[in-house]
């Protein structure tokens, strides 16, 4: 939990401050032509996304879940309704007009809808007291919540892989963004399924 929390803290410290000024000139995402609301949707997405990523870190913390179940439930409601759902809907709207090309636009929308679908499925499962299903869906929701972070982490790798092959700067940026976005979604989905399929080790006393 500590390394994961540190990575998330560094990511937020890097990503959030430029948008606290509410100055569109500080945005790291170019606004598409003719979409004046883009910046404000982006700011709202980042605000809800910050709530989501902090909330989901607390939700997967085993100590909190075991020793403070009431807090776990309350933080879960915040994660779902004040974090994941609004942030995912905004991500789909923003992603549909991605300045990094149509392939990444489709990928962003798909990732946002997966996040939304996993989260709603997890919420419905816990309301129906299907706790095993709730855990599975929420692990997948956690994975998609980490998508932006993973994409940023993979961006330098994508640039290094493509730089020897692509000389044009604009083409390089578009292809690197597409590669890192694709690798992020695939990696997170595979890792979450591996985590669900793995066989937990038995305690020493049970051997």
UniProtKB/TrEMBL annotation:
Locate the coiled-coil region(s) and give their ranges. Answer: none
Which superkingdom does the taxonomy of this entry point to? Answer: Bacteria
Pfam families assigned = DUF2306 (PF10067)
> Transmembrane: is it a keyword of this entry?
yes
Q: Which UniProt keywords apply?
A: Membrane, Transmembrane, Transmembrane helix
Q: Which residues form the signal peptide?
A: none
- Which parts of the chain span the membrane according to its record? 39-64, 76-97, 103-123, 172-196
Q: Which InterPro entries match?
A: DUF2306_membrane
Plastid as a keyword of this entry, yes or no, is no
Q: What protein name applies here?
A: DUF2306 domain-containing protein
């Amino acid at each position: 939990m500590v390394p994961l929390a540190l990575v998330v803290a560094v990511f937020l410290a890097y990503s959030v401050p430029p948008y606290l000024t509410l100055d569109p000139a500080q945005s790291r995402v170019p606004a598409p032509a003719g979409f004046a609301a883009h910046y404000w949707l982006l700011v709202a997405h980042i605000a809800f996304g910050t709530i989501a990523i902090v909330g989901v870190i607390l939700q997967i913390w085993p100590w909190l879940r075991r020793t403070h179940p009431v807090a776990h439930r309350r933080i879960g409601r915040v994660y779902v309704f004040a974090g994941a759902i609004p942030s995912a809907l905004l991500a789909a709207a923003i992603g549909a007009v991605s300045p990094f090309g149509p392939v990444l636009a489709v990928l962003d929308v798909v990732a946002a809808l997966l996040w939304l679908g996993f989260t709603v499925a997890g919420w419905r499962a816990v309301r129906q007291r299907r706790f095993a299903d709730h855990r599975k869906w929420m692990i997948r929701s956690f994975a998609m919540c980490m998508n932006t972070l993973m994409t940023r982490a993979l961006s330098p790798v994508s640039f290094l892989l493509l730089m020897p092959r692509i000389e044009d700067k604009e083409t390089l940026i578009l292809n690197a963004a597409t590669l890192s976005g694709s690798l992020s979604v695939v990696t997170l989905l595979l890792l979450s399924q591996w985590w669900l399929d793995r066989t937990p080790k038995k305690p020493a006393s049970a051997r």
